[in-house]
Amino acid sequence: GLSQYSSDPRTEWDLSTYSTRDQVLEAVRNLRYKGGNTFTGLALTHVLEQNLKPDAGARLEAEKLVILLTDGKSQDDANLAAQTLKNLGIEIFAIGVKNADEAELKQVASEPLELTVYNVLDFPLLSSLVGKLTRVLCTRIKEKSNKENSDIPVNTGPQLSPTDLKISAVTSKSMHLTWSPPLRPPKKYRIVYYPSKGGVPKEVVLDGAVSSLQLSNLTSHTEYLVSVFPIYDTVVGDGLRGVTSTLPLASPRSLRVSELSHNSIRLSWKAAQGATQYLVLCSAAPDGAED
C-alpha cells in the first residue's frame, strides 16, 4: 500500500489493490509526485486509521511495517503519532532525503535505529538503499513472524468492528459516546476527536472492556468529528465515525437601560445559565460626543 502526504494525506493504493509484482511496479511508474507541506504526524495517523485496517487489506496475522520517506522536518508532532503506531506493534522505518531532520527520523523510527533509519543527500541516491533495505525488511518480517503465534483467525470482517455509535447528553462543552463492541473484544479502544473546521486531534485510549466515554472541555458551538477504533495485538479494526456539534453558550437576555445621569447609566439583564462572570463593553456612538 502507498500514501502520499503534504498537508492532506492521500491514499494512492491500498494493501489489497494489487496482487502481483508487475502491477505494483506499474503503479509506481504512474505515480504523480505530491508537493507541499510536511505534516508527517497527520500522515502517520492517516496510515493507521485508513491503510492498516481490514477493509483496506490489512490481515490480522500479517506483520505491519511502515516505511516513511520524507524530505523535510515535520510541521506537526510526528513523534506522538509514531509512538501510537509503535505501541500497537507496527514497525517504522524512516528514510530522509535532502533537508530531512535526522533527529526526528530517529525519534519516529523503531529500534534498533541502525537498521531502521536512513538518510541520503538527494533522491537519486535512494537507489543505493534498495538492496540493504530489502534484506533488512524481509529479515525483520521473518524474525517477527517466527515469534508470533500462528493460530490467529484470518477472518477479520465485522467481528473486529464496533457498531452503533451513539452521541448523547450534548452540552456546550461536553458529549457522551456509547457503542456496541465487536464480536471479538479488542485489547483497547482509541478515540480520536477534533473540530471539523480544523484543529489539533485529541485522543483517548480506553480498555477494551469499556464501551462508553464522556468527552469534556470541548469548545462551544463547534462541530466535532469523532472516531472510535478497536485495537488488537497486531491490527486496528474498522473504526466508527460520528459528527455532532456542541451547543452554543447561553446568552444574557432582555438588556435594559435605566437611571441615566450626565455620567452614568444602570444596565440590567436576565442571567445566562452557567455564566460565572460578565464582560461589559461601553463606547460612544459614532456620531456622539466625546467618550
TrEMBL record:
Entry superkingdom: Eukaryota
Secreted as UniProt keyword: yes
Domain VWFA residues, every copy: 1-133
InterPro entries reported for this sequence: ECM_Assembly_Org, FN3_dom, FN3_sf, Ig-like_fold, VWF_A, vWFA_dom_sf
Protein localization: Secreted, Extracellular space, Extracellular matrix
Domain Fibronectin type-III: from-to ranges: 161-250
SUPFAM superfamilies in the record: Fibronectin type III (SSF49265), vWA-like (SSF53300)
UniProtKB keywords: Extracellular matrix, Secreted
CDD domains to which the protein is assigned, alphabetical: FN3
UniProt-listed PROSITE patterns: FN3, VWFA
One Pfam family, short name: fn3
Entry keyword Secreted: yes
Protein name per the record: COKA1 protein
Gene designation per UniProt: Col20a1
